[in-house]
Structure prediction request, 183 residues.
Amino acid sequence: MTKRLSQQDWLQAGFEALTEAGPAALKAEPLARRLGTTKGSFYWHFDDVPGFHAALLAAWADDAEAVITAQRDDTGTAVQKLRDLAQIAEQETDSEATRLGPAMRAWARDNADVAAQITAVDEARMGHIKTLLSEIGLTNPELTRLLYGAFLGMETLSAHDGVQNGPALGTLVDLILALHEAE
Prediction:
């Protein structure tokens, strides 16, 4: 008996296809082949390919912003939350999440909807980092861009070499905090 595929199964297949083959693989036929089923199953869950793309983007954005939501609800200090962000980056090394970020950004080069969603996620993430830095007393806006840029760059590096991000990002956070404390 064949397992009935869920919408989540299709989204997961889409994420895997995007990271392995790029956005051209995000169509009903190649995804159905990947899952060993027919296009009918795809169209049972999604009205059309643009609807699938929209669901894929929404799922990615929800996951990308989940860390921010969890940290806002956490009672830890801003310093601890900044350090936690570095540890989260370490946990994602060599995972689908590490490969997915660069794949999404590559897709955004040719797709305005993806670019808009990435911009919204970037703004939310940078807003969170800015808030944490402000709570510590660091108001230089370049620090927000520096930390977030380092996270994105390390994500891209890890997608290629599998090296842990946490220690390097933790060192960067510690350096920023040490410079602040030395003032």
Remarks:
- Residues 28 and 48 are 8 Å apart (CA to CA).
